[in-house]
Amino acid sequence: MDEGKKYYTIGSVEKVCDLLDTLSKKSSWELNELATEVGLPKTSVHRFLLTLADKGFVVQEKRRGRYSLSYKLFSIGSKVVEKTGLLKIARPYLERILTEIDETVNLAVPSGTEMLVIDKQVSSHALRQEVRLGSTFPMINSASGRIFLAFSEEEERKRLLSQIAAEGGETVQSKIELFRERFALIRSTGVEEDDEEQYEGIRCIAVPVLDGENVACGAVSVSIPTLRYRDELVHRAREIAVEQASLISRRMGAG
């Protein structure tokens, strides 16, 4: 058992989770390359795939025999989002931000040590950021992730940072130490930014969405190409993002 864990895990379940995660990284996989990627015997991977296919999580191409994920995980994830009510509540406020500044707006929620994009409103500019729904990015390397961490409960933040440190190398650990000292400042301003950390040529401004316990349940971010990142636009983006995210938070029960 991992010394950092207070419980036992089931090896076969962990392997299936790793397999699903790997399958999501490409549109389709051959059995041999998939087995090599996850570091498991081909026979084991094949059995896992047959079971996942039987349960509707994986499909196999009839002609080439390659494997890919089905839409079942998307369906499950959509149900989770619907139950929280966040997506339905947030959308009109995201639309207002877009209308005000015409820059891409994303709504992201935590998924392990990453942030998961569950909604977006896309700028009409030819030069813009546009991510796929369902895209993920590391918490510590993004404005959305850091604002979420800053407004999480202290114990949850410590747990997530410990997990992020365990998964990352020295560079990640150094970054964590840097931001440990900044979380209080981020909480006082209510805004976090990143400078092309996720996408070259794109800077992001992020604000928290709080739930009924006044802790973060997600983040709203505005993505602005560096060519348009000027004081007047940045000031307005911060202002409207804070305003609309506060309204979302109130609808989510924050006081």
UniProtKB/TrEMBL annotation:
Name a biological process GO annotation.
negative regulation of DNA-templated transcription
* PROSITE patterns from the UniProt entry: HTH_ICLR, ICLR_ED
Family annotation (InterPro entries): GAF-like_dom_sf, HTH_MetabolicPath_Reg, Tscrpt_reg_IclR_C, Tscrpt_reg_IclR_N, WH-like_DNA-bd_sf, WH_DNA-bd_sf
List the SMART domains hit by this protein, alphabetically: HTH_ICLR
From the UniProt annotation, give the residues forming the signal peptide: none
HTH iclR-type domain: residues covered? 10-71
Keyword annotations: DNA-binding, Transcription, Transcription regulation
Q: Which residues form the IclR-ED domain?
A: 72-254
Q: Identify one Pfam family in the record.
A: HTH_IclR
Does this entry carry the keyword Transcription? yes
Which molecular function GO terms apply here? DNA binding; DNA-binding transcription factor activity
| PANTHER family with a match to the protein in the record | HELIX-TURN-HELIX TRANSCRIPTIONAL REGULATOR, ICLR FAMILY (PTHR30136), HTH-TYPE TRANSCRIPTIONAL REGULATOR RV1719 (PTHR30136:SF35)
By what name is this protein known?
Answer: IclR family transcriptional regulator
Source species: Sutterella wadsworthensis HGA0223
